[in-house]
Amino acid sequence: MTTMNDENVRIVIALTERTPLRQLWQKALQHRHETRTELLALFVTDDQWHRAASLPFTCEISRVSGVNVDFTRERAKQVHEDAISRVRRQMEELASEANLPLAFKVLPESDQKRIREFVSGSRNILVAPTFLTKRPLFAALEELGCRIVLIEAVENTGQGN
Q1: DSSP-assigned letter for residue 128
Q2: Count of domains in the chain?
Q3: DSSP 8-class letter at 65
Q4: pLDDT value, residue 140
Q5: Mean pLDDT of the chain
Q6: 25 vs 17, 40, 92, 98, 105, CA distance in Å?
């Protein structure tokens, strides 16, 4: 017989390339139960880099040399993949420091069905920065019945977290 206490709890940490990772991680750990808690970092992507690359006037300026180069679709893909790799690496470091297993999933914000699958459940907890409340996805997440814990944060536009 399974009781409520025997059910797994999933803590989903909603991430973008500009979220304050350490703050979200610390808040997630505060809600972690000693047993049967799954930690999932869910990187929610948008197509901002691809939209930028589609504009004919978009260029990239080198920080070192100041040289302008066209911002192409290939470069947009590279920037996008680099951001995902950086966030994944940082989250894996935090999990390693805490000696905890962490799953990492990347989904486009437009794939609301799959995002709902990861977040929904009355025992699940979503830890997210407050700036996600301004995105259309958030309205859908509020309807899922999971507990939502918001961290006061503005989008970090810098490279480091």
Answers
A1: E
A2: 1
A3: T
A4: 77
A5: 80
A6: 14, 10, 11, 10, 15
CATH (domain of 97): 3.40.50.620
**Residue 3 banded pLDDT, cuts 50, 70, 90:** very low
Buried b (16+ CB within 10 A) or exposed e, 4-41: eeeeebbbbbbbbbbbbbeebbebbbeeeeeeebebbb
Residue 33 structural domain: 4-46+83-151
Tell me the whole-structure pTM to 2 decimals: 0.78
Beta-strand (E) ranges in the chain?
Answer: 9-15, 37-45, 59-61, 68-70, 103-108, 125-129, 147-151
For 61, the token pair is: 């300026």
For residue 57, give both structure tokens.
Answer: 């006037």
Nearest to residue 39, comparing CAs of 5, 10, 6?
Answer: 10
